[in-house]
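Sample pair:
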Amino acid sequence: MNWLTKLTPPGVKDIFSKKDTPDNLWMKCPKSNEMVFSADLPGLLHVTPAGHHLRIGPKMRMDYTFDKSEYKNVDIPAVAKDPLKFKDDQKYTDRLKKARAKTGDQDAMNIGVGKIHGIETVILVQNFSFMGGSLGMAAGEGFIQAAEYAVANKLPLIVFTAAGGARMQEGALSLMQMPRTTIAVQELREAGLPYIVVLCDPTTGGVTASYAMLGDIHLAEPGALICFAGPRVIEETIREKLPEGFQRAEFLEEKGMIDRVVARKDMRQTLAQILSVLLKTDYEKLLEDA
């Protein structure tokens, strides 16, 4: 206690006390370093004024994509929780509990069925916030369930990818999801149904090496990292400096690896236009009926 505290009359300190401020009231744009008011982000579709596309979860993704944010969820089959009894610095089951508490989801995949400009569509969203969106047995089952639902109901499938790769805690069982999801894509193809991939930041590893690059059409959000091994690993391996923007969406579009980079505000309309072409539907009529 200092001398000023002793002289301060009782109650005066409470009047001038500092108000508590939420930690997430403002956020710094990674692109421009400017401060953005968090309450403004929903109206901006979680894209900063400088154009940086923030990572968003399945609910926001589906709200921004489906007409009037209306859709129904499709359950994903349950899988073995910890088949290898894996443990590093903590148990795999404990990691799953933390991820589920953080996201409110059972695993990295979410399936929604709704309409995009009147076109009924199945959407699968990969949640990077759930253990880096890693591809494990549950995620593999999620992809297969979405594909099978699309085939059974003769609907197109759109997948929003975001992943750090395979889930190491499931070992070879995780790697097995790559051929399993590839077969599911082939079933969509044999059924003559559109399969569109939207590559979000980041899409890497075994996801890139399987279903993420097997679409009929590949779109990407601006600035998304899309690769198998990241730029840091490549630089350390070849001991050379990589080009500016290497492995980013715009670089891949320039090299012909993806079809188009689409801003989030234009994604819904772009998907509807592509679906109308692939399904041989009159897009202008869709707009009139919407």
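The first helix runs from residue 3 to 7.
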